[in-house]
């Protein structure tokens, strides 16, 4: 008797697992999507930059709310992934946190949705107020190894660099005309938040991150501060008016000229309807005039 | 008869005894303190976030506001897929290794060796494999199914090796007695070996669930990043650990909800472990065995 009861328990356990799987599998057939009043239906897949993904995710939610039978899936993986997936048609739209390079414009169409400035950050305990572009290059190439040489205290400089494949790194390198192999980094980081946390935790560190992210964290009391670049203060305002030199456009890319749902979504992402979302994510909305320019 | 043991003089030093006792105690205390510190930190920063709304509402403003409702559902579904695939496969392989092959069998050794290597493979490798195989080759795309199957591959080695140990721990007498009573091999397996091996299986289950639910790298490319409430297993669904990673790495101001989510994850893990142990005890009590 005992043995029988036990068998029943074990079988019940297995069956309940299998059942929960089966029930889910049954419901996995594509659900019928009722066309909404505006006739927009379907599904879009976006992949790419982890900087752009949270922003586009929010834009997608608002778009879905306005068009109930549209589904937009936002995935991440980095700008290179966004370009590769858009090219192989694994994604309808790719997301990159930079402008398209000239050699890429044959294969892709780019649509700027917002601007992001890259600011150089140091720890708040560091007394250095400003450094020239030349000094920054020397710091990153290990010609300058001590803060004393740029007017700070006698302490070794911890150079924080971005990992390979990050578009922040590419933009930083091209502005300062550096090769990544020239940079002698002490710490390699991936995301903005990691950069901010590294510099906040090390009084002698220097790094570069998104200005929006840095301003937000400074507002929240993070012990870091932004250095001017090329003599221009690093603020959201200088990024917006175009005077800040080290800025990058957050760009949606497609392999074909967009049409249908893809086109509708890109237009929505560039419209003023989403400016509040862009600001809430600490990025800078682009003005209509600039858009017309970038679209040509 | 053996001579009574002579106490050798050097080990009689009370100082040495006290010192080694102190050493052992302090090591144990440090380990406990580290655990308590981590738990305390998560509890301290995360407890304020927890509310019914946080557990049920969808995330808003990139996760800074709102809750983790759809993410909890996705995490649960991924785990269900993972276990319902890995548990039967794992138990089957463990039975094969312990009951159908000798310990020194060449093929058995090959299987065991490959499992041991597999269990040491970094999870990002499983993630890339899952992305190319399940998502692209099998066409499952970014989906809970892709994620669950990828996790199943990851969890299998742990599950199989622990279950195999469980089966091997059953005394050979049981099998001999069963055979002498004329029980078939299948009956012996169902009625005798499986219940007796439950402690080993539960250990494997607990370790496997732990590895699966904490996984980030393997899931970001398979089950994906979408934080909508999933309506099917073919939907992309963000796992709790991916959500925590995204909040702390990509979202300025995401630290507070990240701690809240981390607390939920830890509590979930403790509950699942408790459940696995409870089921294990029920099963072995039913069979009349008492394992201590």
CATH superfamily of the largest domain in chain A: Periplasmic binding protein-like II
Output the number of helix runs of chain A. Answer: 11
- By CATH reckoning, the class of chain B would read Mainly Alpha
**What is the residue-averaged pLDDT of chain A?**
82
Secondary-structure element series of chain B: HHEEHHHHHHHHHH
What is the CATH class name of the largest domain in chain A?
A: Alpha Beta
Strand residues, percent of chain B: under 5%
Question: What proportion of the residues of chain B is helical, as a percent range?
Answer: over 70%
- Calculate the terminal CA-CA distance of chain B, rounded to whole Å: 34 Å
Helix % of chain A is 25-40%
- Biggest interface pair, counts: A-B, 50 and 45 residues
- Unreliable sequence segments of chain A: 1-8, 10-36
- Oligomer designation: heterodimer
Q: What gyration radius of chain A follows from the Cα positions, in whole Å?
A: 24 Å
Going by CATH, the architecture of chain B would be: Orthogonal Bundle
What features would you describe in this structure?
The complex is a heterodimer of chains A (296) and B (292). Chain A is α/β, with parallel strands linked by helices. Chain A has helices at 2-26, 53-66, 79-87, 133-140, 167-175, 192-200, 211-219, 236-240, 260-270, 275-280, 288-295; strands at residues 42-48, 70-74, 93-96, 109-123, 158-162, 187-189, 205-210, 224-227, 247-254, 284-285. Chain A folds into two domains: 42-115 and 248-290, D-Maltodextrin-Binding Protein, domain 2 (3-Layer(aba) Sandwich); 117-240, Periplasmic binding protein-like II (D-Maltodextrin-Binding Protein, domain 2, 3-Layer(aba) Sandwich), CATH 3.40.190. Chain A has eleven helices and ten strands. In chain A, strands 1, 2, 3, 4, 5, 6, 7, 8, 9 and 10 form a ten-stranded mixed β-sheet that branches. The radius of gyration of chain A is 24 Å and the shape is elongated. Helices cover 71% and strands 1% of the residues of chain B. Chain B is built from twelve helices and two strands, in the order ααββαααααααααα. Chain B is globular and about 65 Å long. The chains are: A alpha/beta (296), B mainly alpha (292). At the A-B interface, α1, α2, β2, α6 and α7 of A face α3, α8, α11 and α12 of B.
